[in-house]
Design goal:
This protein is an alpha+beta fold. It is built from 16 helices and 5 strands. The protein folds into 4 domains: 1-55; 68-216, no CATH class; 228-266, no CATH class; 270-331, Orthogonal Bundle (Arc Repressor Mutant, subunit A), CATH 1.10.10. The N and C termini lie far apart (51 Å).
């Protein structure tokens, strides 16, 4: 309810009546005085969307200037063409500074941990908690959406003291939350910064129809394991002979490896085939090695089994692939 109260305060500060947006979100005004009251994620989505449009401020009063409707969509669009999440988030932080200088966002990484830090350059007053939490949740939601991957947090740090509803923070941020910290930050595995950006303009248009879902609901799918498995199979093929060796190399149990890959919509065999296909095409097109040698290098016991698998992957035999120009080869 503290966040609902913060939105009501934004209306009060501008001399506006919050009752219409509370009614639109189906929140009874008498609940505002109850510190133990709660709303659903859907009600928070309704309330935030209605308030942003009524105030014409996507920041909901946090900053010294309004951020007109569409401001955060513009930020995401500017990051959409980045090849990796790391570059996309750097752009997002830099461009946010063009919207307001009340806060400064910065992405750093050290010792395998990424830090997304938020520094206050102006006293945010009574809206500090709501503004900081919303900004961090928004940044995390955008990062998850850009990569189509859940990004589990190692830790969240916040400069303010624990509020009365501090126990609810386990629903806002996974991992431990440290209050009265030196800085506001999200900390997560830096490996996620290397994930490719998977979205395009069409996906952005669909997302913007309910953009607040990125802030109010956690993302479920985690793609980092897929990338780690793919990288291991490509760089350490000896570890990919069987699931036991691969799981041991990744410090996982075999059961966890298969379960998490399934949750990510992948399988070990699919990833093996994908890596083998890419390696085989590279060798066919950029070397003069015999097909029998290429078959052995990518893990096949015979040229015949390699040719059969290659045709299933690409629709071409290895010989046809080698004769074709690169533009004719199926991805």
């Amino acid at each position: 309810m503290a966040f609902v109260q913060a939105i009501v305060l934004a209306f009060t500060q501008r001399g506006m009546d919050p009752k219409p947006v509370l009614a639109e979100a189906q929140i009874a005004p008498n609940l505002l005085s109850r510190a133990d009251a709660r709303i659903t994620a859907l009600q928070m989505e309704w309330l935030s969307a209605a308030a942003m449009q009524a105030l014409d401020d996507e920041a909901l009063g946090w900053f010294s200037r309004r951020l007109p409707w569409g401001s955060y969509g513009m930020l995401v669009r500017a990051s959409l063409t980045a090849p990796t999440l790391g570059l996309a988030l750097q752009r997002w932080c830099r461009h946010h500074g063009l919207l307001t200088d009340d806060i400064h966002l910065q992405l750093t990484a050290s010792d395998g941990v990424a830090h997304l830090e938020l520094q206050e350059r102006r006293d945010l007053g009574a809206l500090q908690e709501f503004g900081v939490v919303s900004m961090l949740r928004n940044a995390l939601g955008v990062a998850c959406w850009l990569t189509d991957s859940r990004i589990p947090l190692r830790q969240t740090t916040l400069r303010f003291a624990p509020p009365p509803h501090a126990a609810s923070y386990r629903l806002l941020f996974d991992g431990p939350t440290q209050f009265t910290a030196p800085t506001h930050s999200l900390q997560f595995d830096a490996g996620y910064l290397s994930l490719p950006v998977r979205r395009d303009e069409a996906a952005l248009q669909r997302m913007l129809q309910r953009a607040l879902l990125l802030t109010v609901r956690p993302y479920r799918r985690d793609r980092l394991l897929v990338e780690k498995v793919r990288q291991t199979l490509a760089e350490h093929p000896e570890q990919g002979r069987n699931a036991d060796d691969l799981a041991r190399f990744l410090n996982l149990s075999v059961r966890t490896l298969h379960r998490q890959l399934k949750e990510e919509g992948a399988s070990l065999q699919q990833l093996k085939d994908s890596v083998r296909q890419a390696q085989a095409q590279e060798l066919l097109l950029r070397s003069n090695r015999a097909i029998k040698q290429i078959a052995a290098q990518v893990g096949f016991q015979s040229e015949k089994s390699f040719s059969r698998a290659f045709k299933a992957w690409t629709g071409q035999t290895p010989e046809e692939c080698r004769r074709a120009s690169p533009h004719d080869i199926a991805p």
